[in-house]
Write a structure and sequence with these properties.
Length: 301
């Protein structure tokens, strides 16, 4: 399996050690994170199919439902690209963008911008839940998030051109953390103030699903400095080690409490799959029963 993956992923492994055996080992180190990342991508695709089938025969689909669909599109793209980053193992060895093979720069860019888009669309969903009207163009409402995403895409290209450290590019991912927190708060607020028992049950399931996703992000952050590699998200944090502890201990990565074949990234991805399984049926039920956010119910009263 390692030899097969190394041959198939050769463009993504070209920054790895030169021998096939070493490349195979590098590919296998993150295999759990790689395969579960692709598993999240598949789960997002299936979620989109279910959500589309639930909405296609309805005369009117609320904006918040389309926003959730955009979240799953972004997450699916991010995880598809992220699987290639984990498979290459570049985060374990490389520190600056010029050290990355061109294919890995593209994969990392797609992963990061996909995760940023997921966070931004979560924020857009929250804005839709908090506004008192569903009128107007959703594309126009999404313009601030689209402009932020475009700006970060330009900054990523500049970062690759001027050889920024990889940990600096990782900081884009804080948009996803912010979106997850906003979404969990919004779901809690809607569930706590809902009068219908069926709708309230669905909203609590949404809150649990988003909390599971947030828990996966917390696991990744807490173990990041020890497990991610020589480049990590938490390197600039004042309470964390810089350079990352993963690379300064002997042997490298020995302070990570999780096995290489199922690291903190794999835990986060597994929880993201669970989150999809919890949230999607709840979203379909809310759509079928014609649920409206509390802000719109208050406006019509």
């Amino acid at each position: 399996l390692g030899s097969f993956c190394s041959a198939w992923l050769a463009p993504f492994l070209s920054g790895a050690p030169s021998t096939l055996r070493e490349r195979s080992s590098a590919a296998m180190q993150n295999m759990g994170a790689c395969l579960t990342d692709w598993g999240v991508s598949l789960a997002c695709l299936l979620s989109l199919v279910v959500l589309h089938r639930s909405s296609r025969c309805r005369p009117r689909v609320p904006h918040w439902f389309y926003c959730f669909m955009a979240v799953y599109v972004s997450e699916g793209v991010a995880c598809l690209a992220g699987g290639f980053m984990w498979a290459g193992g570049v985060n374990k060895r490389l520190s600056f963008m010029h050290e990355f093979p061109a294919a890995q720069q593209v994969a990392c860019g797609a992963m990061m911008l996909g995760m940023v888009a997921e966070g931004l669309f979560l924020i857009l969903t929250c804005r839709e839940l908090w506004t008192s009207s569903d009128s107007g163009s959703l594309a126009a409402k999404a313009l601030p998030e689209v402009l932020v995403l475009a700006l970060l895409g330009v900054l990523y290209c500049i970062g690759c051109a001027i050889n920024l450290p990889f940990w600096a590019m990782y900081q884009f991912l804080h948009f996803l953390a912010l979106g997850l927190v906003f979404m969990a708060v919004a779901c809690f607020n809607e569930a706590a103030n809902c009068s219908s028992s069926l709708e309230r049950s669905c909203l609590w399931r949404l809150f649990i699903g988003e909390s599971v996703n947030l828990g996966g992000a917390a696991v990744l952050t807490l173990l990041d400095n020890d497990c991610t590699g020589v480049s990590c998200i938490t390197e600039p944090f004042p309470w964390e080690s810089s350079p990352c502890r993963f690379g300064v201990v002997e042997p490298p990565g020995s302070t990570c409490p999780l096995p290489e074949w199922f690291n903190h990234g794999a835990v986060m991805h597994a929880l993201a799959i669970v989150s999809c399984a919890i949230c999607v049926p709840a979203l379909c039920t809310l759509l079928e029963c014609g649920w409206e956010p509390r802000s719109r119910k208050m406006r019509t009263q």
